UniProtKB/TrEMBL annotation:
The keyword Membrane does not apply. Transmembrane segments: none annotated. This is dTDP-4-dehydrorhamnose reductase. InterPro entries: dTDP_dehydrorham_reduct, NAD(P)-bd_dom_sf, RmlD-like-bd. Keywords: NADP, Oxidoreductase. Gene3D superfamilies: NAD(P)-binding Rossmann-like Domain, UDP-galactose 4-epimerase, domain 1. One of its GO terms (molecular function) is dTDP-4-dehydrorhamnose reductase activity. Its EC number is 1.1.1.133. Pathway: Carbohydrate biosynthesis; dTDP-L-rhamnose biosynthesis.
Length: 283
């Protein structure tokens, strides 16, 4: 029986990974249980496991601009520690990365082998984590890039929109950034399918299919939550200047799944409907 270790198990994706692995032999470690920056602790924790899934991350994108060392410790060195431990103990290693490893200047979906070119500190630390993991455990590392995550187990854009609807008649959302809203429930299931299939190591893009803007996503969220989508108004990024620049185009291509003989993830609209049906907005 495969023995799984989840690092970052208390996060939004970590919680859904635990659900996706229900009934299996799983060690679920939250940040308080395992400091991924402590290599000795990581080596000890990974011992006895066959598959390691890294859902831990420093995700405060704007804070990373002024705390890049802190982000690097978790996103790069922590990821490397897990990869080194997985290699030493003969385990396969999945690490979750991000669309932010790209510059966002493309006009067609980013292929898995597109050169990394991050435009903010968070993206640099995640890109470094990918490179270090693939170097440390080249035959057993799966980099699964994702984007625009939402789920029941944490704060996220979809929940924020519904919360704002309770206190604002209209909500302004940027319409000039394109990406792929991705449900953590679907991503968790895809990661488990990847491991179950014993697919080739390498880079995969774990996002729901299709594309939309944050504005389009917000309208869909309102509709699924039983709210009037007309209350969502379009604006542009210039009205929401933040410390870290955001990629304007974050659509990821999914050819890696086909090459591995696996189906890509379903359209984002279908995933959102399923998430809503499972209580995404039930607070």
């Amino acid at each position: 029986m495969t023995r799984y270790l989840i690092a970052g198990a208390a996060g939004m994706l970590g919680q859904d990974l635990q659900k996706a692995l229900a009934g299996r032999d799983v060690t679920a470690l939250a940040r308080a249980d395992l400091d991924v920056t402590d290599r000795d602790a990581v080596l000890a924790a990974v011992a006895g496991h066959d598959a390691v899934i890294n859902a831990s991350a420093y995700t405060k994108v704007d804070d990373a601009e002024t705390h890049e060392d802190d982000a690097y410790a978790i996103n790069a060195l922590g990821t490397e520690n897990l990869a080194v431990a997985a290699a030493r103990h003969g385990a396969r290693f999945v690490t979750v990365s991000t669309d932010y490893v790209f510059d966002g200047h493309a006009t067609t979906p980013y292929a898995e082998d597109t050169p990394r070119d991050p435009i903010n500190a968070y993206g640099r630390t995640k890109a470094a984590g990918e490179e270090l993991a693939l170097a440390a455990h080249p035959d057993g590392t799966y980099v699964v890039r994702t984007a625009w995550l939402y789920g029941a187990g944490g704060a996220n854009f979809a929940k924020t929109m519904v919360k704002l609807a309770g206190s604002h008649e209209t909500v302004s959302v940027v319409d000039d950034q394109l990406g792929q809203p991705t449900w953590t429930g679907d991503l968790a299931a895809q990661i488990v399918a990847l491991l179950d299939a014993d697919a080739p190591a390498g880079v995969y893009h774990g996002t729901n299919a299709g594309e939309t803007s944050w504005y389009g996503f917000a309208r869909a969220v309102f509709a699924q939550a039983g709210l009037d989508p007309e209350r969502v108004k379009p604006t542009d990024s210039a009205t929401f200047v933040r410390p870290a620049p955001r990629p304007s185009y974050s659509v990821l291509g999914h050819d890696g799944w086909t090459r591995a003989g696996l189906a890509p993830m379903r359209p984002w609209q279908d995933a959102l409907a399923a998430a809503a049906a499972e209580g995404l907005f039930a607070e």
